[in-house]
Amino acid sequence: ERMEKVVGRARAAFNSGRSRSLQFRIQQLKALERMVQEKEKEILAALHADLHKGGPNAYSHEILGVLGELALVMEKLPSWAAPQPVKKNLMTMRDEAYINFEPLGVVLIIGAWNYPFVLVMQPLIGAIAAGNAVVVKPSEVSENTAKLVADLLPQYLDPELYPVVTGGVPETTELLTQRFDHILYTGNTAVGKIVMAAAAKHLTPVTLELGGKSPCYIDKDCDLAVACRRITWGKYMNCGQTCIAPDYILCDPSIQSQVVENIKATLQEFYGEDVKSSPDYERIVNKRHFRRVMGLLEGQKIAHGGESDEASCFIAPTILTDVSPDSKVMEEEIFGPVLPIVTVKSVEEAIDFINSREKPLALYVFSNNKKLIKRVISETSSGGVTGNDVIMHFFLSTLPFGGVGHSGMGAYHGKHSFETFSHRRACLIKDLKMESTNKIRYPPVSQKKV
Amino acid sequence: MERTQHVVARARAAFTSGRSRSLEFRIQQLKALERMVQEKEKQILAALHADLHKSGPNAYSHEILGVLGELALVMEKLPSWAAPQPVKKNLMTMRDEAYINFEPLGVVLIIGAWNYPFVLVMQPLIGAIAAGNAVVVKPSEVSENTAKLVADLLPQYLDQELYPVVTGGVPETTELLTQRFDHILYTGNSAVGKIVMAAAAKHLTPVTLELGGKSPCYIDKDCDLAVACRRITWGKYMNCGQTCIAPDYILCDPSIQSQVVENIKATLQEFYGEDVKSSPDYERIVNKRHFRRVMGLLEGQKIAHGGESDEASCFIAPTILTDVSPDSKVMEEEIFGPVLPIVTVKSVEEAIDFINSREKPLALYVFSNNKKLIRRVISETSSGGLTGNDVLMHSVVPGLPFGGVGNSGMGAYHGRYSFETFSHRRACLIKDLKMEVVNKLRYPPGSQEKVDL
């Protein structure tokens, strides 16, 4: 019943109305900003403890983005929150017609373990900006960050409006029986279905940021060295544990070995001779995932890497070649530093291959030929796309970030967060004059009037 | 039962063929729909009359006019709506193309309702076609004449594989809901809304739920009561009260209650004459089940006007109840009938508290000469939409989204909002392979210097 109490208190706090004024919201966001600046060391330490993330990496992947989002939201909030007048027609010329952006009430944010700080903070920023109370449930898998968030938030924010709930599956299941006005969940497809089913009981709208296998097509006509460097960066970042990492490569058999060589060279540039001792190379989050990823290597042709050390959850950057579409590594989202290459004879084959599978969260195409890139976009579907790079569509906050099909529903980031956590209320205010113009709508109606 | 599996699979194969995607094709289909509405107007009006005793002129203005307007708007605007939407770039993306691409979702399911059986199937269908999808249409079996007509007409005008109509009742709909869709738009009640969403969850299908609730109507003492009551009467008794955004009940000060009753009575006389039953403008309850449900709400109530009924013809006279207790049955569920309870409140604060102690309604109405008071009610309550000093009208302003919140629904549609509801907004960033030196900063080996930069 602890959950019931926490949520009940958040609802009472929301009903008090204090989260609604722009001043209050901005004050809370400013406090969050102070928290991130003052507790930077602690946040980086937690991320290092959870994922072996190096300070500079953690800063640029998690903290920089949060500070940027806070600055953007605090600047734009007054304009986002203002009533949005709509184009009027002949009937409404004298009236006020506008969309009012209103808080939904009590919102639940369920974070993920791979970018445990930003994946809780970025939705939280949007939910606070929209005037809601927010229950925050960080992932228990990234336990150090979860504990830190649970400690820090009450020190900086209104503790009744923005409580943190920690715990694992039993606690989350209990939490999901409570009634919320929106749930934003980041994680996997299977649990996404569970979250939506729980939400259905209360008619709670959901934003589900899920995953999938994000394909990466490399055209023959492209600067392979540059393409492979960019792919290497996005693939092995956070030890492959990135929801929009390029999951696997599709390319012509004739360039497969070049691709391998280029990636190997880049890995050397990035992590040096001994990857394990590079401070920039992360670890698999826990033993369970370690074993899961290692299991994907069975029966595969390892062109590079494959080394591992279970005690430290280390898996070396690995490339697999001539991978069969039916193998285990091509079934589920890899979420690890294993990069399969599947050969295809043409872009048509690549498109068919992509379309025969679930819609991914991201899709990548590398080519000097912009027409080809546009073609792939128009003949496939995915949450988002970056052409000639990876990951980067995530960092432009004017682009909505979200999935489609099994990779999710809804989107957020920047203004899209604000809208996700708001109700767009249609408002029409007339006056009681000019009643004669209404005569035409009243009975008795005759064909003449029509 | 595998028939639905077959129908959905055929729609999916048709969508996968790619033919629903070109703007020309979509506009061609919309033009065909427009032709259908114009050529078959008589049949459509006849079906609506058979289902709801809706008169020709009423049916035309409530269902056909809106559909023709939506078709014209969508056909005109589609090229601009469907065009990629460039987004504001930042320093890092200055050289790149960054835009939102609006793409079809795939196979969409539209489940209609029985109270405005034509427009509630057509308006979503228009949006879904405009967005490039295949669409499975499931009209409500309760309005059986319109359902049958839609099932007959659509294949005569539209691509039959892309836009099939599935008819049937609860078993057929349940079967349909086990199939996989890329979006479901359901119009109906909250209880079934939960069932639809639960079914959708199994496939991670996003949903738009247009549900209902009890839409409150607050009448301030400071207001032109005659005008207010005439507008309320119009919106309440239209379609025999069977309108999702009808003013469900009135909240007003006890001192004006009898004036309100008198004004409504006078308006009813204006509208329907002495003998309501013989007015061609007064509809009927859709079936016996709903007739009995609505009549049951009158038990123990103080009937200030009306109350007459005739089960054989599903006729219930326009009825007003006064001094209604907030705990009575008529104040529990959405009435969806020509029964108007008046609950007295001593102040606008009390009205606001009353409204907030209940589920968020689909619509909210406030009548007052005092615009400040209206704005206050808006800011201290929540509802899908709102009209001040009138009823229903926010639902016909083209630039306003139409949808609920909380128990009254999720998502919205109408006009451009339909197009967006049935589209995937795909974030696209296209860079080139040059300027690689700019990326050095992000690559390992990372160092504090890089970050400090």
TrEMBL record, chain A:
Catalytic reaction annotation: octanal + NAD(+) + H2O = octanoate + NADH + 2 H(+); a fatty aldehyde + NAD(+) + H2O = a fatty acid + NADH + 2 H(+); dodecanoate + NADH + 2 H(+) = dodecanal + NAD(+) + H2O; heptanal + NAD(+) + H2O = heptanoate + NADH + 2 H(+)
Q: What class of enzyme is it?
A: oxidoreductase
Q: Which GO terms describe its biological process?
A: aldehyde metabolic process; fatty acid metabolic process
Keywords, A to Z?
Coiled coil, Endoplasmic reticulum, Fatty acid metabolism, Lipid metabolism, Membrane, Microsome, NAD, Oxidoreductase, Phosphoprotein, Transmembrane, Transmembrane helix
Oxidoreductase in keyword set? yes
Q: Name one GO cellular component term.
A: endoplasmic reticulum membrane
**Which molecular function term from Gene Ontology is one that the record holds?**
3-chloroallyl aldehyde dehydrogenase activity
Transmembrane residues, as ranges?
A: 97-115
Annotated InterPro entries: Ald_DH/histidinol_DH, Ald_DH_C, Ald_DH_CS_CYS, Ald_DH_CS_GLU, Ald_DH_N, Aldehyde_DH_dom, Aldehyde_DH_NAD(P)
Q: Pfam families, per this entry?
A: Aldedh (PF00171)
Coiled coil location: 22-49
> Which membrane topology describes this protein?
Single-pass membrane protein
Catalytic site: 209, 243
The EC designation for this entry is: 1.2.1.3, 1.2.1.94
> Where does the UniProt annotation locate this protein?
Endoplasmic reticulum membrane; Microsome membrane
What are the Aldehyde dehydrogenase domain coordinates in residue numbering? 2-424
Q: Which PANTHER family match?
A: ALDEHYDE DEHYDROGENASE, ALDEHYDE DEHYDROGENASE FAMILY 3 MEMBER A2
Q: Could you give the subunit structure recorded for this chain?
A: Homodimer.
- Give the similarity note: Belongs to the aldehyde dehydrogenase family.
Q: What is this protein called?
A: Aldehyde dehydrogenase family 3 member A2
The uppermost taxa in this organism's lineage are: Eukaryota, Metazoa, Chordata, Craniata, Vertebrata
Tell me the name of the encoding gene. Aldh3a2_0
From TrEMBL, chain B:
Provide the protein name.
Answer: Aldehyde dehydrogenase family 3 member A2
The record's annotation in PANTHER family points to: ALDEHYDE DEHYDROGENASE (PTHR43570), ALDEHYDE DEHYDROGENASE FAMILY 3 MEMBER A2 (PTHR43570:SF9)
**Does the keyword Signal feature in the UniProt annotation?**
no
**Gene that codes for this?**
Aldh3a2_1
Q: Which positions fall inside the Aldehyde dehydrogenase domain?
A: 4-425
Record's PROSITE patterns?
ALDEHYDE_DEHYDR_CYS, ALDEHYDE_DEHYDR_GLU
Q: Which stretches are annotated as coiled coil?
A: 23-50
Q: Does the keyword Isomerase apply?
A: no
Membrane-crossing segments per the record? 98-116
Question: InterPro entries, per this entry?
Answer: Ald_DH/histidinol_DH, Ald_DH_C, Ald_DH_CS_CYS, Ald_DH_CS_GLU, Ald_DH_N, Aldehyde_DH_dom, Aldehyde_DH_NAD(P)
